[in-house]
Structures are given as C-alpha cells and as structure tokens.
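ping. complex inputs:
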Amino acid sequence: MFRFIVRRLLQMILAFFGTTLIVYALMFAGQGDPIQALAGERPVTAAQRAYLTEKYHLDATGVGGFFYRYFDYISNLLRGDLGESLTGRSIGDILAAAWPVTIRLALIALAVAVIFGVTAGVLAGIRRASIFDNATLLLTLLVLGIPTIVLAPLAQYFLGVKWQVFPPTAGADPDFYALLLPGIVLGSLSLATALRLTRTSVAENLRADYVRTARSKGLPNRRVVSVHVLRNSLIPVITFLGVEVGNLMSGAIITEGVFNIPGVGFNLFRGIRTEDGPLVVGIVSVLVVVYLISNLVVDILYAVLDPRIRYE
Amino acid sequence: MSQHAVRPTPASPTPPGGHLLEVRDLHVEFRTGEGVAKVINGVSYHLDPGETLAVLGESGSGKSVTAQAIMGILDTPPAHISSGEIRYSGHDLLGLPEEQRRQIRGKEIAMIFQDALSALNPVFPVGWQIGETLRQRLGMSRADARRRSVELMDLVQIPAAARRLGDYPHQFSGGMRQRVMIAMALAMEPRVLIADEPTTALDVTVQAQIMDLLADLRRNLDMAMILITHDLGVVADVADRIAVMYAGRIVEHADVRSLYRAPAHPYTKGLLNSIPRLDQRGGKLSTIRGLPPNLMRIPSGCPFHPRCPYVQQVCVDVVPHDLVLGDGRTSACHFAQEVRDDRAG
Amino acid sequence: MSDFETVAASENQAARRGPSGEPGTPNQVGRPRKPRSLAGDAWRDLRRKPIFWISLLLVLLVTAMAAVPGLFTSNDPADCVLSRQHAAPSGGAIFGYDFQGCDTYARAVHGARASLLVGALSALFTGLIALVVGMLAGYFGGWVDAVLSRVIDIVLGIPLLLAAIVLLKRIGSDSATVRVAAVIFVLAVLGWTTAARVVRSSVITAREQDYVAAARMLGAGNGRIMWRHILPNALAPAIVVLTIALGSFIAAEATLSFLGIGLREPTISWGIEINNGRVHMRESATPLVVPSTFLALTVLAFIMLGDAIRDAFDPKLR
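pong. complex structure:
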C-alpha cells in the first residue's frame, strides 16, 4: 500500500511538471510579443508592460530564458503567488474569495448525484429490463445528450425568469437556495453518469459467481444484495464520484458563468471574456493542480476499496 | 441378470422412511429471447446418508443445473422448473416457501463451486466470509465466529490458519482457495455436500489432494456427497454410485465397479474409452464423434443417436426408457444389454 | 470536464478502472462468437427500435440542413435590420427576429453547417489517430503497447475544456477557416483516446483468432495482416464510438464558441447564437430557445444513434 502511494505520488509530480510546462509553453513560446499574448487584443499600458516584464522575466531570452521563466513561474505557483490580473487585483485574493462558493456548489451537485443517481442506479440494476430501468436509461441518455450550454440557460430562463421557482441569478454572496438550481444543473450530468455506472455495475455483480455462493450459504436476499453486491458494485461508482469532485470544482465554468455565481469557474469565464491572460493562466494552473490531486486521491481511494489493487 | 423390465422409476428399493435426498422426474427449461432450451428432461436420482453419488457428464449436460435446482439457487428467470419433485428428508423442497428453503441452504445441504477465485467475494477477507455464515445463520458472536473459522480452516488443512484469516481470496493459491470454499461449506455441518466440479480449475497434483480431503471429510463428518464432474478419472476412488448425464437426462446409473467393468450405455462406453489407461499401452485413444446436442433442438428418439456407434432405426424414432439391468443398474438405451455384453467396443 | 462529459466518456470511466487494473475491455466480454450472424442479429434488433429510426431521421435532417440550408429557409441569415429587433414572426421568419434583428430560424438553420463540419471532421481525424495508435498498440503489444497506453492515459488525464482554453487562446486570427481548423485540431488532439482504447482491445481480440495465425503461417507480413484481417474487425466498434463522439464534438464546439474562444462571427454557430440569446432572454426567449433546441436535438441524435447501434452489437446487458 505504501509503495503504491509513493509510486502514484511520483507519477503525479511528473504529470504536474509535464502539464504546467505544456500550459506555460503554449501561452508564451514562439510568440512575437508575449505581453500581447497575455493581454490579447487589449491595449497594454506602459505600467502593465513593465509589471509583466518583471513578473515573467521577459527580458531573459532563448531556450535557457524560457526554462528560467518556467521555473520562476513554477516556484511562484508553489508558493501560492499567482500574480495580479490585468485589472490589478491579486489572483490569489480572487481565488480565495471564489473557492468557498465553488466548493459549496460542487457539494450540492455531488449530493444530487449521489442521492438520486446512485439510488436509482441500484434499483435499475436490480430490476434490469423493467419499466423503471428503461425509463431511467432513456432519461439519462437525454441528460447526457443535452449540452450544459443548453441546459443551464434554459433552466435559468424557465425556472428562474418565467416561472420564478428559483432565483435566476446568484449574486455576490449566494445562499443555499440561490445555489440549488445551478447545483442541480451542474450535478445532472454526474447524476446521469453515476446512475448508468451504478446500474451496469450492480447488474454485472448480481450475476457474479460469489452471489451464487452467498445465496448457497443461506443468506437472505436482502443481505446478499446490500452487503455482497453493493460492496463490489460501488467501487467504480465511488471512484467515479471522486474524479467528479475534481471535475465539478474545475468544470463549473459554464454553470457559474450563466448563473452569475462568483466562483472559480466564473472568474475564469470572465477572464476569457475580458482577455485577461494572467488571470486565465493563473486559474488554469491552479485547476490543473486540483485536477491532478483529485486523481491521486481517487487512485488511493480505489486501492483502499479494492484489495486486489492494494496488494498488487 | 437377464430380467428385462421397462420401468421409468429409480432402480434401487426405497428404504423405510425414504431417501435422504431424492430428485424425481425433474424438468427445467431456460426461456430466452431466442427460444426455450430444455436443459433438464426428467432427471431422477437419490442419495442416502453417508454415500457418495457421482454425477458425470459433459458441460451442458445439466448436471450443475440439477444441483442448483436442489439448492434453490437457479436464476429464475431465465430458468424455469416446469415439473418434478425434489424431496429432502420427507419435505418437498419445491413446494416450500423461500424462507424455509433458505434455512435448509448451507445448514442441511451445502455446495462448493468450481472456480473458487470467482466464487469467493473478492473484497472480503476469507475469515470474514467463513465467519459470515456463522454469525448470520447461527447467531455467533464475532469472537466465536473467528475461533470457529480457524477450526474450520484447520480442518481443511490450511497451514497457519489463524494468520491467514485476514487474507483476501486472491492471495491464496488455487488449492488453498478451494479449501477455503470447502471450509465455508462445512461451517454449519451440513448433511449433504454438493461439490460442483471441485477440482476442474486446479493442477493435477492439487486435484488429487482436494479429492482425498473431500473423501476424508465426508467419512469423518458422516455427510452424504454429490460429486459433479466431467472427469471419470476422479470419481473411481471416491464414489459409491455413478449417474451419467447426457442432454438433460440420466442415461446410465450404476455402482462404480459394474459401470467401469461393463458400461451399459454407448455414451458411458465412449467416455471410458477416451480415458488414457496405463494398462492398455499402444492402443488407440478413441473419442466420441460429433458434438453435444443443441438443447433448443434435441434430436428425436434417443438424444444420443446422432453420435452413437450402435444406432438403429428405433433409436431415431423412440425415446428409450430406463432399462433395469439388475443390481440397481439402469440404462436409457434400447440395446443396453448388448452394449454391456459387448466387451470389444 | 463535466461540460463535455458524454455517454462515451462516462462509459470510459468504468473501463478505465476495471477491477483487474487493466485498461478494461468491457465491450468484448459477452460478444457472441459467431461474427457472421452478428451484423444480421444487430440489424434485426435495430429495426425494431423506434429510437434508432428517430435518431437516424434527425441525423439525416440535420445533414440535409448543413448541405442545402436553402431547402429549409429562403431568408438570408446575415440580413439583420436593427429596426426588426425582437420583432414577431413574419414571412419566412417563423420564430421572429433576434436582438440584432436577424431571422432567428434562418440563423439556426444555417448554424448546422459549422457544427456538422467541425463534428464530422473532428470525428474523422480522431478516428484516424485512434486507428493508428490502437492498431499499433494492440497488434505489436510489448513495449509499443506500454508506451502508447501511457500516452493514452496522459492525454485522458488532461482536462479537455482547460486544455482547449489554453490552446485556443493562442489563435489570434479571426479568419473563419483558421478558427474552424483550430477547433477541429484541438478536439481531435484531445479527443481520440476513448476510440483508441476500443480499437486496441478489438485488435487484441482479433490478433488471437486462428485465421490470423493461419495468415501469419502462410507468410503474410505484418502490414498485410493488419490491413486485411485486423482492421475490418476494429472498424465496427470504432465507428460506433465515433458516432457518439461526433455528437459530443458538436457539443464541444458549441461550448467553445459559447465561451468566445471557438468559432466567431460572422461564422454562424449555435454556441454563439445561444450566448447572444441568453444575454437578452428577458426581452425575448425565442432567440435562446430555438438554437438551443437545434443543438440539443442534433447532439442527442448522434449519441442515441451510436448508443442504439452499440446496444445492438453488444447484447450483453439486456
């Protein structure tokens, strides 16, 4: 187990340097004017130009200069210094204000996925080919097939603006109720995926040989399903949900943007819209780290849940 | 030996009080989207206390399905028991409510399966899995169940049992895993043990150890055993009687000695001839020609007729009944006596 | 990224962490051994499914829309007059006019071309990359497989939307062709992994077949075996995955355009239309609802079509 964790940790560190290098290279390499690359089409003031040149060591040149700047960027990133956005605010401060909102939203979405997705998935898996099963399959296919850029604005229009069941936008300091609709929209995709995954997993495990063994021990059907089948079926589901936590936190760009929720995704959304290069690079870098860490946590979780992996 | 009566009933006389376990004229179908497969077509056999019955047949002959019907663990659907009776010490199992059948499983009749790696739950330690039966069925405390699990693992000769309680199935060798399976089945001291191909997935040397273990345990614990196998080689030393199955029927039923000496069904004869034997060196190893029948389209008359070297017109037209050959032997062949007396085949 | 996650990607999660720790091959397990009747069985099964016919009809409809938009509307989508802002339906404009005074319906119809072009070409390039990588990894095995499988793992580990944001920010040009090409490139480079895994596992299955051994014994070279014997086996499952992927690529293109980093005006894209409609939804909702419906139905059609075909070919779970 210990060696497994160490191995995965080393892999993650490797992936971290690889990914950040790619992000960094794509942003700056081969660009005629790296400052203009950061700023996009906006005019750059002399003060900004001076700040960016100093911040990113743009006066160093060549391949050596590139790596010098890259390690500079990495060490800043690791120290939590993300620099300033073009509007002059500290990116670290922006993120510090944004994370709590994003995490709350992600938790609501996750709760929706677990409560409805996993429960319905278990039922559908047990009653395979029933009306309930076919109905949920069709419904999840619909959810999976409708892009978020359709679902979010339409939910906002119909439930928020037209019928006024929910507040249409969240505003500066959103409460639970204001985050509920965006949370459901964000979680619906995870819900559908978790449901399908649970269903397939339960259905497969119900036919496993060990189920026959458990029944031949004379255990009641209830126990066979709730202990033997579920313990096995939920391994892929839990690992999926673990990955989803990472995704939900970094992937709420559309939902946060549409519902005006001041989270991390919203700031990225705004950074893209306003062509704020430093803000985009800063947030993307942090999100990549979040993503890598959540993947590591999931792999360890998987090893904890499945003894076959643990003792490999 | 020459008496010749056509009777569709089991051969040996029923002892007073009935057999311990008796299957009577069982029919099982599998109903799938493509049609109905008749998997069991009128199987009857019985088991008395303390004896070992070997059920022999190719895969698909219905030997495992019969066992699962006895246990009550058939998947229904697709399986459907269309008729027949399964009696266990006087009770008709098929007529019992599920809750009472469940009480019998494991406690009265226990079963071990072919592939212990998939038959054991991969995510629980073996000690937990053995102990689960004790805790759930006998209401033992955690500590008692643990102690008893160690005893059971000692009983099936797993070395350092106490230390291995916490290990997971995949950490055991094939033979040790099968021993865990056996320990689990013995947990509630059943009166009948059904062993479904217990050695098929194992190496030859380990096979012999497991068969010896099963034979010893059966004797020491005074159980009756149904040993399901496709391998004639493993049953000779262990079984008292043999029932040979083909296409969901029992085609021959005899005590071990007479069956080996003079098989009375062409199929049994074919099986015996396809075993390599040390005392017949240089002889050509024969095989049974053709393939087992498709259970959705079982051949007319005797189901074995397309593969049978003795085939006559009557075999194509008429389903043979069990022919009683004396000594408690039966054979479902129109020419049972001729086959038995034909030593050349 | 959850915004892009679709049926294909979600199923991939299960495959990715199969209980053996191997890159899973769930599609192979229950496959009948008789390939000659498989296509026939699948077709008989498909014919009875209403979902198959509905999605096929939708796919054909949107393809016709992309090829000959004139069949569906005679109005010019670029004919925008501010005086008609949010005007009621009139003439050919059956859904009225949007904020800019453009014909909402005409713009939605003309949006099909960019979507389908990006979706189809991304799927095509994805398929090519997946076939090459999957065939090499599956056929040669050993270290080739080890290296390529790690590459697949790494690319699969890149969050799609974040990577697309970084890549597309580099494109300064507003030229329609450049932007379309850039989006296709980004989607193909990031999206080929699922299909490559499917190809790899079907190649591994095919490689073990007797006829391949026979061909090898008759002296056929690697190239010939791969082309004549392995490729046909890998093609069918790859096409199913790519049909589903085509749907998700269309959704991805719309998402990127919605964010303003994909296609840009004057190219007509459903993503841009939805974003424009969203901003003014309080005044008039039809400019939001109409392109949303077009996009959702198109994506759904491809995903459902692929799903139905896969179910028919893989009857394990019914």
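The CA atoms of residues 174 and 202 of chain B lie 6 Å apart.
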